[in-house]
Amino acid sequence: MKTFVSSISQKEFPINEKFIGGAIRKSIFDSILKDHADFTKKSTIALSELNFYRQKYLANYLLEEVGELTGLENDVLETIANNEMITAKSITTDEGADFSVGQRLADAVASFGGSWKFIIIFGLFIAIWITSNIVFLMNKGFDPYPFILLNLILSCLAALQAPVIMMSQNRQEEKDRERAQKDYMINLKAELEIRTLHEKLDHLIIHQQQELLSIQQVQVEMLDDIMKQLNLKRE
């Protein structure tokens, strides 16, 4: 297998990982120059070494944009460096979280209390309560009009239901925040990957241009040889 020696580490790498300094984006090239002042456009660098400086460039870009890298930005840079998917990272999600009994109960109560099933059942309960006291018990039952006991039950239910629903809303806000963080990481990685893709396309175009120039030089040399042979035959 053909190899080459990197101008940075002086180590041998496969020839298919070879990059020429002139084919590297200027921003990344300048980043390499800060660590290796003797690096030129004719110098060579391996793909793994180039990826290191790409990640370094992306980190500096994020520092300029957001001022300070948070855990989310560092996670995104790690996924790019390791060629991983964002979903493979350990982001806290609704499916994998270990909720307490109180949190699960609050979610269940809020889900049931905000449904038509609860409204219908509670409406039937009130209707039966009022009918049984007025019609069947001739308003002399356990809770005659104006239904003081019923009002007490409704007040207690509202007093207990309100904080439970608020707890569930807090849980929903946490879920929304987690989803927003994941969306932010995915969008950020997409932007950084696009910037890296531009650099790779630039390298590919420059490489193709160099190949075309080499082919043209060979063709010109062949034409010169043919012209020389024709001139010799004429003489």
UniProtKB/TrEMBL annotation:
Residue ranges crossing the lipid bilayer per the database entry: 118-138, 144-167
A Pfam family hit: DUF1003
Entry annotated with the keyword Membrane: yes
Keywords: Membrane, Transmembrane, Transmembrane helix
InterPro entries cross-referenced by the UniProt entry: DUF1003
Protein name: Uncharacterized membrane protein
